[in-house]
Amino acid sequence: MTVEAITRVRFPMFGGEAIVAVADPRALARAQWVVQEQLDAIDAACSRFRDDSELTALNAAAGRPTRVSRLLHEAIEVALRAAAVTDGDVDPTVGEAVRVLGYDRDFGSLSATGPAVVRLARVPGWRCVATERDCTVTLPAGVQLDLGATAKAWAADVAAHKAVSDLGCGVLVGLAGDVATAGPAPEGGWIVGVADWHGASGSGIAATIGIDTGGVATSSTVVRRWRRGSQELHHLVDPQTGAPADSMWRTVSVAAASCVDANTASTAAIIRGERAPEWLATQALPARLVGIDGAVLRLGGWPLGGWPQAERAAR
Fold first, then answer.
1. Residue pLDDT, tens place only, 15-40
2. Does domain 2-27+170-314 have CATH number 3.10.520.10?
């Protein structure tokens, strides 16, 4: 996913790249500082790959009540809400299932090949997670949370709104396929390019969408892939099976009122497969779904505009 904006800056974040764009060029340096501070704090709270993160400590304490920061508590509540609205298709208790598949470190450090997966881990289900208003969280023994399905998109929302609060001008935050906006958009809106790979540019961009508010998210089975034995795996796990989703869609992009809402819907659509179009229609969300064969389905008013040559090539 790419972004065209008046003024923008890119920097490494979450094992990928962050983009900060502002409607007022004078605010760019300050916006980057505010956004990076927010993202660093969320990474320290929510990362599954940091030995010193709060989430790592919480997972290690599974089986007993644990007090966590308000930041991690909110991130967990966001993940549980996503699970509730998707009937468990987006479930934060997939941590052990993802680890067994070999995704046990930051993707940039993940070995591309390895021994075959000999067993799949059962996903216990989000309803087993207990949260209290005093920021106490209780996980049953053996349960491991993975907030990857929602935390990055939520971080983009949080960072964008914090930057607007501090600066007063329109801000866009993009995090590897997740785009959040806040405040007044520049004239003509924010123009976001969509592709299978979030780092694509030029001819790799398949479509564009203009937004004034809210967020856009793309979920894909194409990018984060690795081999274990003879099997090629990806990171979007079906909670019903503990295996990578066997979906008819390779990429789903959704626009919604927030980035986390868009990401929740795009991830759920990958998991739901052939049931996704009907579900997205009931949610009244603009969406663009790309099948394994490259065929494109647009729903809910997703615009036909973009790069027509790239669209034709995708088919």
1. 788 999 999 999 999 999 999 999 99
2. yes
